[in-house]
Amino acid sequence: MKTSVSNLRSKGADRIGVMARRLTQLAHIPVDTLDGVGPRSAAALEEAGITTVLDLITHYPRRWLDRTREARIADLRPGMEGVVVATVRAVHSRRTRNGRALVEVSVHDGTGSLACNFFNQAWRAKQVHAGMEVTLFGKLDAYRGRRQMVNPVVDLLGDATGRIVPVYPQSEKAGLTTRDLRVWINEALERAGQLVEPLPAEVLERQDLVSRSVAFRQIHAPESMAVKEVARKRLAFDELLRLQTVMVLRKKALEREAKAIRHVVGDGPRATLVPRFHAGLPFTLTGAQRRAVAEIEVDLGGPHPMHRLLQGDVGSGKTLVALSALLVAVQGGHQGALMAPTEVLAEQHFLSVRPLLSGLKVGEEGNLFGEREVRVELLTARTTAAERRELLPRLSKGDVDVLIGTHALIVDTVEFADLGVVVIDEQHRFGVEQRAKLRDKARGHDPDVLVMTATPIPRTAAMTVFGDLDMTVLDELPPGRTPIETTWARAPLDVAMAWETVRRQVAAGCQAYVVCPLVDESEKVQAVSATAELERLAAGDLSGLRLGLLHGQLPGGEKEAVMGRFRRGEVDVLVATTVVEVGVDVPNATVMVIEDADHFGMAQLHQLRGRVGRGVDRSHCFLLGGTDDEGRPSSDEVAARLGAMERTTDGFELAEVDLELRGEGTILGTRQKGRSDLKLASLRRDKSLVEAAREVAFLLVGPDGRGLSRHEILAEEIRDLVDDEEAEFLFKS
Ligand code: ADP
Ligand code: MG
Predict the structure, then answer these.
(1) How far apart are CA 344 and CA 566, in angstroms?
(2) Is the pLDDT higher at 149 or at 260?
(3) Which member of 167, 288, 359, 489 has the greatest number of CB atoms within 10 A?
(4) Would you say the CB of residue 286 lies under 6 angstroms from ligand 1?
């Protein structure tokens, strides 16, 4: 929502006046209105994504060099981090054997010399030259007796005087020096003067936050590291508060949708279906499942449509909870729908749901006996035209109670008689519009929505990404599961052991999965490689076993056919691509071999591994790959990821490790865009700040959802600064 520069010019808004104090105003002032910024600098700034004064002052340092920790080269020991001020002696550029750009810079400081190796930063060769004085921050390594730093942080000394020196990201590449940035930011802050405070004084006091003006000054030119941290806390809080306020507004807006169905719940005379369903199961619900069902029933019986997220680890029994919610709709005479992201998953849901419902009766008016069986149907892209012609009229008449399917559920020709509860599985794979479309299938009212994620995400991340939903966590696995033993097969001997285990388990009557290397994102390429892998295994490590092939490119009924053979035990080993990632449930499978495991993310590995350990037999998971020829981890990150997989099977713990390793970008990216507003805040480091921001957001938005009108500046910032397509809509109501 930034107005174009020319537009502003014509409005004469190109001067920072004394009154320009709101962040939203700074967002409208082009950066070249600063005295120090000429056309060349403006172009370079633009390349770094900085076009307005607000962009400039929120271009935060990537790190701060603490000159008080300055060391002499001779005093640094291998493994120690330190700041060194030194003179450049020589600069050499070359390519490494595997083609990476390497710039070698040697420096000395009178006490000793140091080699600095910069990988993939060819531009360094232009940045530094012999005779120049530089400040370096990094960890000292000793490599073949030479003292070196790999990719240290560089600061061109210039005339920086403070003891804490900010270092800005990406700037050198665009030809911007840290020194220039410091000067411009200083000018911008000087001329902006006092910044308006959007938060009430009580909030500042209770959350122990400094004023925004102080925070902006201190983040760019801190007097000490402690002061810098105080400033960072305030500015990170602002980022989190804006996001949380959007989430809370959205939540309140959903709650205002008044056309909810008050479902029949509890144990009254009309609410017998769900209790009978539970009583007829071959097992008893876990405590967590009972709590989840109870929470959901409160929502369903209440005056607002449900918007709830069900989180639970792989195998925690989410399907049962979801089905209970759908049956609440059915027992009140409404319909339920379950939408899954893939055909395999939808079919799997259908197959696991149908036996659970068999024999379950629901009351029916006009039927002589007053009841009939609960009817579940499946609708995917594979449903034939003839089947659709038969199914769709029954659906629109209300003869189908629960419809399970894929995106096929939301096409225009699908009409429900009375859709009451919607379950969306793996919701991050669906866009906002697709979810809205499914909701629109319920005419005349807003259906209750339960969203499930197969992959747990840490609490603070869930609060940010799914902050508009209520949350239920299934924190208990059904009894009798034996833990999966995971081995990262680093040495050739381990790999041989993996195949040996497959053969042994098959001999004992169990089954196995082999997940093929993820050579390419393309389904076609994956299919080819899976086929080749099957042939290789059939002729070698797994010869004599009955192998089946499963990949996304298999035509029509073949996927289902091979899954059927595997389920019935007619196939010993399923060689597959990641289509087996979610939902596939064959308790007799006890071995999972994942080839090139280092190519998969942690969530995916956890999902894949969750395909075994579903029965009472001891299960094994082997992770292949991720090492060099001598069995050493190919990188620290791979070692951490695969090591964590070996250490624990707890999905929430793995999610924390994942967040630690990859940062929030990936998690935030799983929902709609607009989560890129976190420049300083970190979902992993700032957990308590996330919670505090959420609390304050609820406070400011108020119970009726209209409190923000009393916090006009914050409201304006959210409207103008939060990159969220829905932020604007939220203010319309
Ligand atoms: P999730 O979808 O959470 O990964 P599922 O719903 O697929 O887990 O359930 C995993 C397996 O556990 C299924 O075979 C299911 O029948 C079984 N199951 C679910 N709840 C229970 C329970 N309370 N006791 C025993 N087994 C259960
Ligand atoms: Mg499941």
Answers:
(1) 13
(2) 149
(3) 489
(4) yes
